[in-house]
Each structure stands twice: as C-alpha cells, then as structure tokens.
Amino acid sequence: MYQRLFIGNKLINLKEVDSTNSYLKQFLSDNNKEIEGLVVATENQISGRGQKGNSWESEKQKNLTFSIYLKPNIVVHHQFLISKAISLGIVHFLGNLGLNNLKIKWPNDIYCENKKIAGILIENNIRENKIYSSIVGIGLNVNQTTFNSDNNPTSIGNQIKKEHNLEELLNQLLFFIEKQYIVLKSGNEDKINTSYLDNFYWLNETRSFKINNKLTEGIITGVDIIGKLQVEINKDVETFDLKEIEFLR
User: Fold this and answer.
1) Are 61 and 184 found together in one domain?
2) CATH code at 96?
3) What are phi and psi of 180, to 5 degrees?
4) In terms of domains, do 171 and 223 share one?
5) Contacts of 121 (CB under 8 A, 6+ apart)
6) What is the per-residue pLDDT across 130-161, written as a single tens digit (0 to 9) for each?
7) 241: domain CATH number?
8) Residue 136 to residue 70: CA distance in whole angstroms
C-alpha cells in the first residue's frame, strides 16, 4: 500500500547517534557515493538540532528521528519549496493517521491542535546557483507522552491515545514525503504553494511579534518566493527572515 520509488530504499538504522544530519553528511563524504533517497534513522538522537541552534527533545526509542538525502536541482531562490514539500508530506501523513487541526508553522514546524508535533531542519549544498543536494532532518513525536520542553509539544500518542510501531510509521511517512517531493521535482510549484497556504498556521490572523526588540502587531499573509514571512503592518506588507522576527504567544 505504501510502495515508494526511491526514498528509504536504502536505509541505515542506528542505535544511537549525535545527529542524523551530521552522520549522513559524514557518510556521504567518507563513501564518495551519492544515493538520492538514502535515509539515516536512529533510536536515540542525543544532539538533535533545530533552527536557531535549538535542541530537539526526543525520548529514546519513542519517536522518529531521521534524515533524508535529496537532489532537488532547483534554483537557489526557490529553495524554500523543499521545506514546503516536506512539510506537506508530514501533514498529509498525520492526517491519514486521523490527527486533526494540522498546520505548518513558519518556517519549519508542524503543529497539531496548536501544539508542536514535528520539526524539520534542512541543510543545502549549493552549486552554480542551484540546490545540488539537501539533507533533510526530521523529528516527529510518536510514542513519547511527557516532555520537559516549554515549546508546547505533543505527540501522535498524546493525540490518539495509541502506541505505534515506529518502523511501520517511518515507511508510511516516507511514502507521503516522496509523493510531495515528486510533485516538486515535476515542476508543479503552484500545487505546492497552494497546498502550503491551505495548511499555513495563523494565515490572515492578527498576531503579536517582537521586531527589533519592539512589540508589534500584524497580519500574517504568507511567505515570499525565498521563504521570508510576509506580515502586513499598518497596511504595508513587510518580509522577515527567522532572525528578524519573534512570535509572541
């Protein structure tokens, strides 16, 4: 039912590793062999990373922590399409499991019932103004039900009160990610962009932010072509990258 073409056909399973992104990067360097769709997964990631250097909390043998090697070959200024496609794959996978109120929070988090359930970290290799390759790190909370983090986390187990087989879930998730990645590779950017906005957290809502250490209110209107957040402030639409704006609850 969840037959894939290439993502996950080559899979490296590790008992423990500092970071699957770092391991995959070193593996590719040491072996001088590029296999698109190669996946590195681990039962215990001890130094998982997020945006802004944040750590990713994950209890041993409870969650999915893995990285995928991709070769999108798209122009640099369209690189955020990779994040969009991966995010949509995760959202569609979770929806297929029966989870509700799923949203993509800019720039790289997946929320369920207003709580963080997954995160993405993408590291791109640029050659001649194109994204030659990408290492896509994904952390998805599955069977962990208690968290020390103050980032308002949740998990599949918390949402549907059932423990899941991690190997089976990984196979399913890779299927949904590959499906969206193929849409991206086919050049159907409009489909990706439309679906992304349909699932965008806080779209057209007035939110509070901190910008240049000042409290500001604005309406989130989307993201621009390079992935900057678009916010309407005093009837003017401004764009921000991750370091320039902070969400306030």
Assistant:
1) yes
2) 3.30.930.10
3) -75, -35
4) no
5) 21, 49, 50, 51, 108, 136, 137
6) 999 999 999 999 999 999 877 789 999 999 99
7) 2.30.30
8) 8
Tens digits of residue pLDDT in 169-212: 999 999 999 999 999 999 999 999 999 999 999 999 999 999 99
Give the CA-trace dihedral at 177, 182, 183, 187, to 10 degrees: 140
Same domain, 32 and 115: yes
Rounded (5°) CA angle 26-47-138? 75
Do residues 214 and 116 share a domain? Answer: no
Q: Which two tokens stand for residue 239?
A: 């764009």
Contact status, residue 65 vs residue 41, Cβ threshold 8 Å: yes
Q: Are residues 139 and 65 in contact, defined by beta-carbon separation less than 8 angstroms? A: yes
Measured CA to CA, the distance from residue 14 to residue 72 in angstroms comes to: 26
- 20 phi, psi to nearest 5 deg: -65, -35
Domain extent at residue 94? 11-198
φ/ψ region of 90 (left if φ > 0, alpha if ψ in -120 to 50, else beta) reads alpha
